[in-house]
Amino acid sequence: MLPKFPLAAQGLGARLARMIAQLEGKISQKNLEGLIINVNGVGYEVFVSKTCFQKLPELGEGVALLIHTHITETSFVLFGFLDSSEKHLFKNLLSVSGIGPKLAMQVLSGLTSFELIQALIDENLAKLTGISGIGKKTAERLIVELKDKVFKMADTIKLDVTSFGKGHVSPGKTYDEALSALMNLGYQRNIAEQALGKVKHHAGARVEELLRVSLGELSKM
Description:
CATH class of the largest domain: Mainly Beta
CATH superfamily of the largest domain: Nucleic acid-binding proteins
Shape: globular
Number of strands: 5
Structural class: alpha+beta
CATH architecture of the largest domain: Beta Barrel
Strand content: 15-25%
Radius of gyration: 18 Å
Number of domains: 3
Distance between the termini: 30 Å
Order of helices and strands: HEEEHEEHHHHHHHH
Strand order of the largest sheet: 1-2-3-5-4
């Protein structure tokens, strides 16, 4: 359950929301729901997706997170993201009727950024309804309201959107596109290369196919 903190003034809360765009410090605590980042002696509780949590460094190590501050009349909650693509998806999810921050985080915990973009573009109801808390009607609403938005977003994070559901690209280009996409999703280059090294022999594979297998390898690392 998300904590609630009374706000002394909504005006102050709004200003703080604009100010806290990123936090950088050492991880003092972490669990599956989130973490506490120690920034110059001040601990900030930040909620993250399961996908983000799996990429976090160990306790005591430094981390930098992009922040979205969610403010209501009774709460002030920080949500953190390792990369801009996940943060953009989170904000897009919040724009959908009936999707609050908790459910948005469940969506991002159920699928990686790439998998979610792919599911929305492909109108894959089975993939979306496989996420806890997402029924058929909600999945259909996500597709209707977000498909065009994420298609444009896929282009900005250098995913090869022209390959979705279409023909193959050359092996060299496929590898380069997949590596670029993994790095844009927040993976370090050497880690992404290790994962791709295990699957890049899949000659003729499409970018999304190579990424799907690579993400599976990354989940085991």
